Amino acid sequence: MLKIVAVSISHALTGGAGHISVTVRDLVAKTLISLMNPHISLEHCLCMSKMGPGHTLSQFMAYLGLAKFLEWHVYAVDASDIAIQAMEIVRENELSDKVVVLHGRIEDVIIEEKVDVIISEWMGYMLLYESMLGSVIFARDKWLKPGGVILPSHASLYMAPITNSQRYQDSVFFWRDVYGIKMSSMMPLAKQCAFMEPSVETISGENVLTWPTVVSQVDCYTIQAQELETITAAFKFTSMLQAPLHGFAFWFDVEFNGPVRQKSKKQANPSLDGNTQNASPSSKKKKPDVSIVLSTAPEDAPTHWQQTLLYLFEPIELKKDQNIEGSVTISQSQQHARFLNICLKYFTGDQWYVKESVMR
């Protein structure tokens, strides 16, 4: 009997982000199908995420199991009141013998069996903002069987320097002449309002000045909660263009893989080992050990995660081949665990700069 334990499916699978709904659902389905072979036995699965109706993927998996495999047993766990509606929908579709809806936090519910699969759309903006990865770790340690599957299984957070003159025009330089009225005195305040905190928006590959560097890599099978408290990464970029440096962009990829990988994903960073001319921003999606990847990179199709931009108050004019080096530290806020403190220290043009921000 194939049983699935589903723990809450987020807003990315239902509601306003329809294109994400299909994408995440299909990636999960493709991965599970690829894992369903005579050498792998899956009997239970646990799906988790941040918020929203849990019944969408749960029902989908129940129908999928009914049509293609044996019996799938789904637990849909959600802390919000939408769980009550999910219960009614399950009964309405006569799936009560396959789908059990539990109303509560994953840390509080009781599931009296181990699971083979954990599925969670846990990712937040900049991968870790309001992330539920800690809850995935809790569920993994409490319920996942040895050799079980976690989807998504791996994640990588990237950053790169960017140029975005239009953003400065719209937010700052606009005040130089507002319908014939000079309001330049507003520009310092406009910079503070527009660029004090990280901004979630969509940019294109044309905004990116160099190849990205890897800030953090997450293996959901092995990562521990304390590793998420503070992440620090060094970087060295070489600008490929002569353009103003307006800030730094962050984005992420997630992969859908089983627990055994052909080789380690840890690889030398092109921007750190000097091989920038031979690197490709899409090469990370073509490694032979990666089966399915969902990317939020600027050059890929837009998602509701977009990119996270940390803008500078004052642009820096870069020359072609000019270096930018430094470090970035991302830490959980002591006041609110799901907020992020970001400290960016970088050196370019014989000068050090520091940018500190809080993603609230």
Question: What is the gist of this entry?
Answer:
Residues 267-279 have a biased composition (Polar residues). With 360 residues, this protein is α+β, with helices and mostly antiparallel strands.
Fill in the keyword field for this structure.
elongated; SAM-dependent_MTases_sf; alpha+beta; methyltransferase activity; disordered N terminus; single chain; Protein arginine N-methyltransferase domain-containing protein; 15 strands; transferase; 360 residues; six-stranded antiparallel β-sheet; 7 helices
Write the layout of secondary structure elements.
Layout: H1 18-35, E1 45-49, H2 55-68, E2 74-78, H3 82-92, E3 99-103, E4 115-121, H4 133-143, E5 144-151, E6 154-162, H5 165-171, H6 187-195, E7 199-201, E8 213-219, E9 230-238, E10 243-255, H7 270-273, E11 293-295, E12 307-318, E13 323-332, E14 340-348, E15 351-359
Parallel strand pairs: 1-4, 2-3, 4-5
Antiparallel strand pairs: 6-8, 6-10, 7-12, 9-13, 10-11, 10-12, 13-14, 14-15
